[in-house]
Amino acid sequence: MRPARTVDPAIARSWLLVNGTQPATFDTASSSRADQIVLDIEDAVDPKRKPEAREDVATWLGNGGHAWVRINDRSTPFWQDDVERLRGVPGLLGVMLAKVEAGEHVTETFEQLGGATPVLPLVESALGIESAVDIARARGAFRLAFGSGDYRRDTGTSADDLAMAYPRSRLVVASRVGGLPGPIDGPTVGSSHPLLREQSALSVALGLTGKLCLRMEQISVVNEVISPTSSDIEWAAEFLRAFEARGREIIDGSDLPRLGRAQKIRRLATELGVDGGAFEGL
């Protein structure tokens, strides 16, 4: 069993959803290359099996496992049981709260869990998108995530890239307004790696910085696409070296924005372990 995730959840790229009714797979998922794993006791679980799944998840966490848990939304009768059982459980890194439509859903969950466990609101409806800023500003909110499938069902929106750009952009803007890390995009359904690569690249282009994964084979593609590219790393290293060589002197109005971008690329590449030594000595 991998003891704890090594990638800071604030910059985690791949978030692997794991069915809470399959405890035999928890160790395997924990040992995968996913930046974070999310044990799912919400949509993946039949209502009749939720108590069993909740107990299996809590037991695994209490016995040395480390993971996030996707819990049922505030409007369901399962929410109270979820937060009561998970409160104080060792190994619980945080909860992904399903179907969030108001900031108070986040705050109530945060408080019920003891006021220290981070809450990752999953926004999955038109009302949730419209309330995104309030959700991002809610006490306990850690990072927003997009429930793209439920959003399409709620609104009748197609999976077309243009049609789905609006809700994704709303989450990106709300995250910035709320002072949160970039949001996590919904999953790609299917086993096509070219499609996954294309959709992950679109997420990055829109400003999202993570993606939910449904299968372990999706992890490597998501991690690669969402990481800084080799050309970005090369550019950042060259810019920072030139900037240092001239005594950090600002020459024109483009220097500060470029410096900020270069520093962000260096931080991400270094923390994600993909810098290849490019920033050595900087």
Automatic annotation (TrEMBL):
- Has the keyword Lyase been applied to this entry? yes
Q: Which Pfam families match?
A: HpcH_HpaI (PF03328)
The entry lists its GO molecular-function terms as: lyase activity
Q: Which InterPro entries match?
A: Aldolase/citrate-lyase_domain, Citrate_lyase_beta/mcl1/mcl2, Pyrv/PenolPyrv_kinase-like_dom, Pyrv_kinase-like_dom_sf
Its domain of life reads: Bacteria
Start and end residues of each HpcH/HpaI aldolase/citrate lyase domain:
13-213
- State the needed cofactors, names only: Mg(2+)
Q: Which UniProt keywords apply?
A: Lyase, Magnesium, Metal-binding
Per its record, how is this protein called by name? CoA ester lyase
